[in-house]
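Why do we care about 3D structure at all? Because function follows from shape, and shape follows, mostly, from sequence. That is the central idea of this module. The next example makes it concrete: a single protein chain, its amino acid sequence, and then its structure expressed as tokens.
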Amino acid sequence: MVLASLSLASAQDSRMSLPTTVGAGSAFSIHSTGSGKAVLYIVGPGQALRRDVQLGESTYFPVGSLYNAGHYLVILVAGSSTDNGWVDVVPANTPANLSFLAKPSRLPIGLHNGISGTVYIFDVYHNLITKPTPVSFKLSNPSGSAQQRAVTAHEGVATTEMDSSEKEGFAKFEAQVDGISSTRVVEQVPGSPCGLTMIARPSGKGIQLATNPVRDCSGNAVPDGTIITFTESYDGAQSTADVPLKHGVAQVEIPAHPGATITVASGVVLGNEIHWQK
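And the structure:
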């Protein structure tokens, strides 16, 4: 009975000494007081550890034991006695992975702040690094020019905006943190037609309509497939023809109506107007 009482007293006196924080994946130790054997439990986000321990000694946890950042409950069970506490596992300080989102993937040229980039910074265990971290953004345009931004990430996130180029083509959008980089490609296409014009010629009993080569305001050729709308108004009636650009021009043949008014447009962009008298 005396021995049993001494054993119980030792178990009831058991206490833990816990670290306040542990870096994700770092080695750490938990020291306990008392004597005899006990069981140590650590429970947290997506992880649960169990160790048989010797009271009065330090229990060592090697590198990689706790790797998910979060708030962990630590419980020491020694006979009928328990002690508990909390340990915060924080992200490692060294960036290892980037998640880089660039949008849109395709846009017209010449748009101010038309391209946005957002980067998320993770450690080697895929924990979001929340400490302020410098991020470098660079957009290299087809013309050879480049835009650069230096941004500090807060709570693991950094964002920026860039202008699309005045020249069509593919731009390389790069985010870099501590020598780790991630790249996305953004396609920059010509803008809306600018100075849209057409010519009209007699063609048998009809009218042959054709645009001049269609370009945007920067002189870039508007992509083939862009719809050009020809409209003919006559005697209170109206007819339209939607024609895609082919090799930079759109052409169509329509019936001839003396006194008709013919217009050309692409979306909200209007071109010239022709009054047909023949």
